[in-house]
Amino acid sequence: MICRMAIGVLGLTLCIGILVYPNEGAAEWYGDAYAGAVWTSNTDLTVNSSLGTTTTYQDLDVHNNWTAGGRAGYWLDKEKMDWLGFGLDVFFFHLKTPPGQQVGVTGGGGTTTQFAHWSLPAWGIGFDVLRLRLPLFRDEQFVHGRVQPFIAAGPTLFITYAGQNTFVQPGGQSSTDVSVGAKVDAGATVMITKRIGAFAQYRFTHFTTELEYQNTTPTLATEAFKTTYDSHHVIAGLSMRF
After folding, report:
1. Which candidate, 84, 76, 87, places its Cα nearest to that of 133?
2. How far are the Cα atoms of 65, 67, 92, 125 from residue 34, in angstroms, in the given order?
3. Which of 122, 141, 149, 232 has its CA 20 to 30 A from that of 52?
4. Three-state DSSP class for 136?
5. Cβ proximity of 132 and 124 under 8 Å
6. Are 155 and 182 contacting, i.e. CB atoms less than 8 angstroms apart?
7. Is 167 left (phi over 0), alpha (psi -120 to 50) or beta?
8. What distance, in Å, lies between the first and last C-alpha atoms of the chain?
9. Which 3 state secondary structure label does DSSP give 27?
């Protein structure tokens, strides 16, 4: 199901790219590199077993962390349309709980308290199918504006990997998941020269992972670990225009 959704997102993005791909000389191309900090809201980790049981690790506290990435794309170059652009954004961040965290665990036997350590590196591949800017302070050198507030939004593929997470998943196993989520950006670029700019922005990401493991305790079973993450990113970087 997830693979079909991912293929669907890629196909839709490719179709949009073909329809709006600019003619030669009709676009201002850009390449950005950035880094920053991430804050993720507390979340619940739900484990559904093929034996019919459900266990929930409540209110996991996700550490503040860092993010880094890059993006590339283009803005339409004609003055009356240079507010519209498209792009591809690739970034990394880490969803990690403090080691030895105690959380409430609910299941068939009621609620207990247990240690839980959950570590999930995440790659995002964002398709900015909607990218808008407001060109301010135009002049002969900065034909698209010296200051450019912008917003961007689109579907995002999130690739997550869980290695050995203490006290939670079955021992000696790892799992990888690809899911479709969303990304929204808002910020501003200040052009230092005609080709080089600096920017700062806020980003919100939302996605759900579902990682599967084989457990042998108390008996053989497939367990699906499902979690939803809402993260807030504050980032800054440099932009090159071509």
Report:
1. 84
2. 15, 8, 11, 15
3. 122
4. strand
5. no
6. yes
7. left
8. 39
9. strand
- Classify burial at 157, counting beta carbons within 10 Å of its beta carbon; exposed 0-12, middle 13-18, buried 19 or more: buried
- Alpha helix stretches (DSSP H) within the chain: 2-20
Partners of 224 in the beta sheet? 48, 212
- Residue 240 tokens read as 């090159």
* pLDDT digit string (tens) for the chain, length 242 residues: 445 555 455 555 544 554 455 655 578 999 999 999 999 999 998 989 888 888 888 888 998 999 999 999 999 988 789 999 999 999 999 998 887 788 888 876 677 887 777 788 999 999 998 899 999 999 999 999 999 999 999 999 999 988 766 556 666 777 899 999 999 999 999 999 999 999 999 999 999 999 888 877 767 888 888 999 999 999 999 999 99
Tokens 């009621």 correspond to what residue? 110
Residues 6+ apart with CB under 8 A from 7: none
Rounded to the nearest angstrom, the gap between the alpha carbon of residue 65 and the centroid of all alpha carbons in its chain is 14
Q: Tell me, what amino acid is at 126? A: G
